[in-house]
Amino acid sequence: MASSRESIRSPYLPKLAELIKGQTLSSREKLFQLRFKDGSTLGHKPGQFVEVSILGVGEAPISVSSSPTRDDAFELGIRAVGNVTQALHCLKPGEAVGIRGPFGNGFPLPELLGRDLLFVAGGIGLCPLRSMIQYAVDKRDQFGKVSLLYGCRQPAEQLFREELAEWRQRQDIQLLESVDHCPADVAWERHVGVITTLFPQVQVNPDKTTALVVGPPVMYRYVVAECLGKGIAKNQILLSLERRMKCGVGLCGHCQINNIYVCLDGPVFSYEELGRLRETEV
Ligand SMILES: Cc1cc2nc3c(=O)[nH]c(=O)nc-3n(C[C@H](O)[C@H](O)[C@H](O)COP(=O)(O)OP(=O)(O)OC[C@H]3O[C@@H](n4cnc5c(N)ncnc54)[C@H](O)[C@@H]3O)c2cc1C
Ligand code: FES
């Protein structure tokens, strides 16, 4: 009996999604709200990613930036750096992109229930972490203390400013923000210094805390040192890795480190797991 195309859906076959809204976040980043044309939902977990394609241009892995607890649409926060991402930045509402996924392991939700969450986001790292932050906000009673340390280079680079303002107002979230430097003619009332200089302001119960860290690779080593200094266990420091990817499903080997496929086994790894991968020096 011939199988229908749906029943043998290839992981290489993109589904069409329509751009509902694009919103400028900074001079380099935009947030895109998308919905599948066939009415289906993405069904992702926080921390997972999708492969986004534009016909005739190419495909790029992009983390899902919104929580599955919100709506039938999903959001992607994208920095314009190359062919695909620049083409995405030119997209108009109503136009379509191809989506494969969701892929990757995402954050280990069942293991995070009841724990204190210490989010550490550097720059565009807030895009992937936002899916888990929104999840924790929407299911606030399922988690202990929630803290977010967010650092970027300068005030103009802060992403999700309206949402940050909402989180700042909440009594049940501790939000600490920093910029590496602030131009003399820009008003900035919060901390100036690299993200690790925020750590002295956070009280951590090391037995209850999981740190969720996403940012530029250079940040990881220093943030991990701060987390360890607070007594957080190696297996409770979770980091999301970026590697060059093609297939996204463990078949092409582009993202391979030793016997690990970052697209399949990651992108979220604990610091303990990474310690076993000699290549991944954090
Ligand atoms: C799991 C995962 C999640 C991600 N999530 C996000 C996200 O949420 N938002 C986001 O904006 N980005 C995200 N990225 C990064 C994004 O996938 C890359 O920036 C991607 O390369 C963009 O594709 P592009 O075609 O626009 O740029 P590309 O054409 O791939 O170019 C991107 C940059 O890489 C350089 N480059 C290109 N090819 C190579 C090469 N072979 N070796 C070294 N450098 C090269 C280019 O010069 C350019 O500076 C994620 C990546 C991964 C793996
Ligand atoms: S991207 Fe192909 S194996 Fe990971």
Would you mind describing this structure in some detail?
The chain has 282 residues and is of the alpha/beta class. It is built from 7 helices and 15 strands. It has helices at residues 83-89, 109-112, 126-138, 161-169, 217-229, 262-265, 271-275; strands at residues 15-24, 29-36, 49-54, 58-63, 74-79, 96-103, 116-122, 146-152, 174-179, 191-192, 209-214, 237-240, 256-257, 260-261, 268-270. Strands 10-9-8-7-11-12-15 form a 7-stranded mixed β-sheet, sandwiched between helices. A 6-stranded antiparallel β-sheet has the order 4-3-6-1-2-5. It has a two-stranded antiparallel sheet with strand order 13-14. The radius of gyration is 19 Å and the shape is globular. The N and C termini lie far apart (52 Å). It binds flavin-adenine dinucleotide (FAD) and FE2/S2 (inorganic) cluster (FES). Flavin-adenine dinucleotide is lined by residues 49, 58, 60-63, 77-79, 81-85, 124, 127-128, 242-243, 245, 267.
Tags for this model:
7 helices; binds FE2/S2 (inorganic) cluster; 20% helix; 6-stranded antiparallel β-sheet; binds flavin-adenine dinucleotide; 282 residues; alpha/beta; 7-stranded mixed β-sheet; disordered N terminus
